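#struct-queue
[09:14] JT: dropping the first one here, sequence first, then the structure tokens:
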Amino acid sequence: MTTSLGAPPAPPAAVRSRQDRGLADRIALSAATRQGVHLRTADVHAWLTERRRVNAFQVDRIPFAELTQWRFEDGSGNLVHRSGRFFTVEGMRVVDRDGPGREWRQPVIRQPEIGILGILAKEFDGVLHFLMQAKMEPGNPNLLQLSPTVQATRSNYTKAHRGANVTLIDHFHRPDRHRVIVDVLQSEQGSWFFHKSNRNMIVETVGDVPELDDFRWLTLGQIAELLHEDDLVNMNARSVLSCVPHQDTTPGALLSDAQLLSWFTGERSRHDVYAERVPLCSVSGWRRGKETIEHEEGRYFKVVAVSVRAGNREVVHWDQPLIEPVGVGVTAFLVRTIGGVPHVLVHARVEAGFLDTVELAPTVQCTPANHAHLPPRRRPPFLDAVLGAPASRIRYEAIHSEEGGRFLNARSRYLVVDANATEAGLDPPPGYAWVTPAQLSALTRHGHYLNVEARTLLACLNAGALRPQGGM
């Protein structure tokens, strides 16, 4: 049969498997491989030390008046970049109609452009390795941490700063769809960002990748060991790693997937929270000084300014505002083994800056100092169970930094804590549910289900924080 023009018919469309059945085995092998072919795990610290030595890094706090590239906008008072790009510090008005007249205003970062957080993968000696970068961020307490291969806003990779090209960006800007392992939009902190999303990606390459001083190939097993150390694997890397499609070997869960999704949809539906951007100058309860914008009671966070020098960045000198939290946070999953399967207690958490208002969060996520003045009934649920847990019940603990490009010295104590039936029953209070890490991993294939703190803890769970310990 031919068409009316005499051309042969097009071949029938080919179908393919909806999943790469061999990928789970390759991921498992990488996770089980504790020594890579390029860098021993024990040598990672020496490499980072050497990169700090050869690159000049300096971060100084400065008054707002010394910002050369930023200004307070006339009329709104918003803190904006002179190019109109990057991000702005604005005000946010929040009305929580669930509570009795709860309304507040606060500063918030608005960055409408979607950035790329991308990790390049490649097989060496039959084992998947992942290309990690020793990246300086001005807000990191130790400046240099392991980051994704590429960590760039649209303003960065379109060179709004008029600096150098973002290294290896071409692997992620228009990736070969046949080589994509992970590609999903995920949220960032809903308490400090307004509707912020980044594209989390893992892309495999079979081609040659140039050997660069600030980059090293590591297996998932090596990265898992490094996740047990303080201030080493940065937030963006943890977010991307949480999306790795690990194989589910558990026999089931307390809630079926349909029940979990129904519960979560109900949680999203029942909350009535309204958030809108407002001029920064209209934010009541906060005061602007020469060097900080801070809450009148000294809680929550401050907006500060810094001047930065970094010899290995696309731009070697710049200044910018940062959000500086007041106090170290506590972020924790309570865990119980149910029917032989580890489960974690998740919280359907409302954060005004989320696109969908509610995302799944850890059992506890707060800065305890912000709640110390409150009576026990008004403090975050389960906080006392986490803070009072003996060392024998702590399955995982490390201090991790939050995103160092926007936050200054933002650190949280991340924990996985065994709970007993008295502290956390199988019928948790409204807003909480028992789920398995495998169910959380499945949800990371879709955007805006798990918040960034839950994704960090999921990456830590995948790094071996849990082992089955019998049923309850």
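[09:21] JT: and here's the second one, same format:
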Amino acid sequence: MSPAHAPHTHVNRLFVLDTNVLMHDPTALFRFQEHDIFLPMVVLEELDHSKKGVSEVARNVRQVSRFMDDLISAAGADAIHSGVLLSSNPMFGNGKAPSGKLLFQTEALNYPAPTGLPGDSPDNTILTVALSLRDKYPERDVILVSKDINLRIKATIVGLKAEDYFNDQVLDDADLLPTGFHELPADFWEAHNKEMESWKEHGHTFYKLFGPLTHEWLPGHFLALPGDQPFQAIVRKKTFDHVIIETIRDFTEPRHAVWGITARNREQNFALNLLMDPDIDFVTMLGAAGTGKTLLTLAAGLAQLLDEQLYKEIIMTRVTVPVGEDIGFLPGTEEEKMAPWMGALMDNLEVLTQPSGGSKWGRSATDEFLMSKIKIKSLNFMRGRTFLNRYIIIDEAQNLTPKQMKTLITRAGPGTKVVCLGNIAQIDTPYLTETSSGLTYVVDRFKGWEHGGHVTLQRGERSRLADYASEHL
């Protein structure tokens, strides 16, 4: 159960926080409602050792220190022994302040270490502190909160309650994420033709619909009615009693090819409609390897950059988390350092620039021209920038935290489109899960926005070998 959703009891719980919880979310101090928080001295020591540097962890640690300093300054030094009221932080002025206290370890808690816990590692010290608190306050429910699975296992072994930190989770289950489309029943038109209106604008057909199913739809979601005469549309607007939907373009037709690429399945067709729609500013695409996320995104970007001239350039970035051992520092400029991480970009450019006839010289000239229009940027230098009329691709977005995702998306200026790609089943960042990833966060928070869209690609189109491997390995 999430500490933030813990039921009210007569005696408030006492949560002992591990260092990694504060490193992960500096606002964790304020996420436990009416319950009290205890910070062992070893946690403060570990925070002090991690405060230097420009990494996300170091920034979080410094923010935690500022929060604690503000709390102590507001409550006074005398409150250290009795507990600092968490509601004294000035960041809470809307009645949502936690009513619990922040307790620090002000004395040595001499508790014999349980048999089987050798040494005096920080984890073992936190365990003995939590056990001594359980004995000191037998009427209270003492719970250790940690992102470290092994520490939670050790706590359970020695008879101590332990929980993961759940407040960073966007959803209880990743399966609750929207797919971005709804498949309509065969009798859809019969059940929803009452009071229906239809009209045409700029070659597109619009429908104003009333009915029971319309309550489940959100703007930016797609509708599909399979059959002999398939119908596909996107929800444009939704009010309390009706929705307005618009038919979409069929990118499976060769005459509607985008930079030579046609959609091979229904979900790819939905994705291309989002990518090619100038009224959609933010697109998220989930899908396993080989579903075509990067290829479709790059093809749509090049078509709008060079053919329609909607954007000045394409900017591609991704978090640099290695799958295996790190190979050390890389030489060169920012783009040269990022090049090894951009293999997907080069592979897809090779597909998009394959000439039907031309010479090697023509191919080389085309590649050089396209690369001049595509900028590879590192996440490290995004803070403070504003991108105007750019097509921004954030690849491997599942490895970003919600805070990093916010930093990136808020860089977008007028005329900029942001596309986030990823597979939440392949997260390489420590302490991030499918339900706490930044990609999950933005998919959930942007659902229902009229200028945003999401689609989950389900079918691999890379090769029969890749499809078989995905299913059987």
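[09:30] RK: nice, looked through the second one.
[09:31] RK: Residues 56-75 form the longest helix (20 residues).
[09:31] JT: good to know. DSSP finds 15 helices and 18 strands in the chain.
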